[in-house]
Amino acid sequence: MYNVVVLNNHGGGRGLAEAALRTGMVCRIEDEGAFLVDNGDGDSPDAVLLDLASLGTTTAKRVVEHCRGRKVPVLAAIPGEAVEQYDPALNPDELLVCPASDDELILRVKQAVFRVNGPSGSQTLSVGDLTIDLERYEVSAAGRRVTLTYKEFQLLALLASNPGRVYTREALLSQVWGYDYLGGTRTVDVHVRRLRSKVESPGRSFIETIWNVGYRFKAPG
Q: Does this model's pTM top 0.70?
């Protein structure tokens, strides 16, 4: 189970920490000041939960940048009454509107970890002559290095990690772009088309279109 840190100021974050403990996660509450001076020599948590009820926007942004440098996923917990004041420039890996159920909390943590670290388990996926290095964010097709955008890579990694599973456009939009993304499902189609142009060729295809539903990655034959 995940090891998470709840960051707060002025003694907040207890409710969020209690919810994390109920899900089975290992959790500790830490002052944002102490966390920011950590040089990263110790064990990094699997994810950081920002209690925006007690953290100012400026401080929260500093924490997000600090975690990006350490490749630690960040989830921002926003009080329901403060949603209208949320600054999208904070740009955490996931958002959680509180109060939220324990199930939603663990789901959001899992999603944040996936966005930053990719699927758990093997760090390399190989399907035919397509190789995806989840740790180095590198892709090669037929021995040729393929350059993908970050979203293209996320999309490919998600599909290839679950061969045969059909994803609706809405599911892909939520899992790759985030549920707060304001764009439409047309974004998914555009990225799939670009992805195919880079990793596929005549007689060699990986991503199947399921008409009126979405997409799936071909299961190994």
A: no
